[in-house]
Specification:
The protein has a two-stranded antiparallel sheet. The protein has a two-stranded antiparallel ribbon with strand order 2-4. With 144 residues, the chain is mainly alpha-helical. It has one domain. Helices cover 76% and strands 6% of the residues. The chain starts with a strand and ends with a helix. The protein is elongated. The longest helix is centred in the middle third of the chain and has 40 residues, at 45-84. It has three helices and four strands. Helix 2 runs antiparallel to helix 3.
């Protein structure tokens, strides 16, 4: 019978509170930006363009930093899983009952987690480059 790491009820509650706070934060940001963008719609395109470029640039920067940080965390976790030869890592609190993988299975899981981390980091860079090129095109094009 495989070893099962039992869920930590306190950790489950903490994860749920964090998820609810994140949802509330994103909803608040959406309504603030929606109101701001509605105000920009009333402006002529030449006056609204710098603000829209700024919004796109800053929001892309925030998303890229967050995705890159998540990728870096995944890369580190994958490396730790591979070196420990166990998934989930020893002394990790889990939010649901989890079958413990060890040996080759844990090593494979660690490689998968590292691959996902690398993909997130590369995707973050690709998004930053794509938006930078888009913004450079938009700002160099005259507004009529």
């Amino acid at each position: 019978m495989p070893e099962i790491q039992r869920a930590d009820p306190r950790q489950r509650r903490v994860a749920m509170v964090i998820a609810l706070l994140a949802i509330a934060l994103v909803t608040g940001i959406y309504f603030v930006l929606a109101g701001y963008i509605d105000q920009l719609r009333a402006l002529p395109p030449a006056q609204a363009k710098p603000a829209l470029v700024s919004i796109l640039g800053w929001s892309t920067a925030v998303v890229c930093v967050m995705v890159c940080a998540l990728g870096w965390h995944g890369w580190r976790q994958g490396r730790q899983i591979r070196s420990a030869g166990r998934f989930p890592l020893p002394h990790t609190k889990v939010i649901r009952d989890t079958i413990v993988l060890s040996g080759r299975d844990a090593h494979t899981r660690g490689r998968i987690v590292q691959g996902i981390g690398a993909a997130l980091i590369l995707s973050s860079g690709a998004l930053a480059i794509a938006v930078w090129r888009l913004l450079s095109f938009v700002t160099s094009t005259p507004t009529t």
